[in-house]
Amino acid sequence: MLGTVILHRAAVYAGTSVLRASAGTRHALCTGHRLHGALKDTASGPGLQHRFLSSEAASDTLSKNKAPVIRRFWKTTGVEERDGNYVILLDKRPIKTPGGKQVQISRSQGTLAWLVAGEWESQTEVVGSHSLPLTSLIFRSIDGLSDPHVRAEVIDKLLKYFQTDSVCLREEYPQTLVDLQQQHHAPIVEWAGDAYGIDIQSTGNIFALRQSPQAVARLREVVLEFSPLKLAALERAVMTAKSFLIGLALVEQRLPVEGAAIAAQVEASSQTQRWGELENAHDIDNAAIRQILGASACVALDS
User: Fold this and answer.
1) pLDDT score of 183
2) Which of 59, 173, 266, 285 is 20 to 30 A from 40 in CA distance terms?
3) In terms of Cα–Cα distance, which of 269, 50, 247 is closest to 165?
């Protein structure tokens, strides 16, 4: 029953891009794929701390130590209001970050709390870090981006993407790529320029592409105002789309998940139109990108 409620709320919450997606894609956006990785669970006080291992580390550990895979260890999942915020409960115990901090979600993001609970409810056997995209972003915001020094480093890193942003590159060939860039990239550049009152440079030469100090400073002002959770969403979106402006448009609710995914894959789409699609590989890439961008869009709402 909980899973059905979660999927319904996720469809409403994440917007039309989720509603247009296939059933499999909707499930991926809301709960994530059950991919590789392992979850090391340790009890601490009234809550649970979770330490995620990468796919490679988990595989290496299992092969060397022949340790059993980490399986679902809780029976019930719930959401409860405490001290004016929402907490996610596993067997009536609130989840904690790897750093030992209790996860609390503000009342303004009540739907997000249910979505996170849905991630945990959807786990069946092996629990992996990639199957909890919303939880991962929340952990990042609490353990990492609440630190002013980490915030500053992350913002500097993200603004480097703006300097050579993929949506500011204008190719002259092939025509399919030119058309796709005009259709999906040009509106993002136009929106950012108008919204923040900056002049954004576009060129066909990546080595000549640099943005003005004034434009960088203005966007830095914008991002400095983001909450830790919204900054975590921006960071994940930018790293996935390989574009600062696509990530910014997504978390600012100026671009739907599907639009962001298409804009991020313009070059791949052009190659597919020319040479055909590598079915399995493209299916995985498409689903993974939409899963990550969908999670980023969800946590950025009302944050």
Assistant:
1) 96
2) 285
3) 247
> Whole-prediction pTM value?
0.77
For residue 153, give the amino acid letter: E
Residue-wise burial string across 222-243, b where 16 or more C-beta atoms lie within 10 A, e elsewhere: ebeebbbbbbbbbbbbbebbeb
SS (H, E, C) 36-75: CCEEEEEEECCEEEEEEECHHHHHHHHHHHCCCCCECCCC
For residue 62, count CB atoms less than 10 angstroms from its CB and return exposed for 0-12, middle for 13-18, buried for 19 or more: middle
| Residues 224, 89: Cα–Cα separation, whole Å | 32
- Read off the pLDDT of residues 1-17 as tens digits, 9 standing for 90 and up: 444 444 344 443 344 33
- 3-state SS, 252-293, equals CCCCCHHHHHHHHCHHHHHHHHHHCCCHHHHHHHHHHHHHHH
Give the C-alpha distances (Å, rounded to integers) separating 257 from 165, 169, 179, 187. Answer: 19, 22, 21, 15
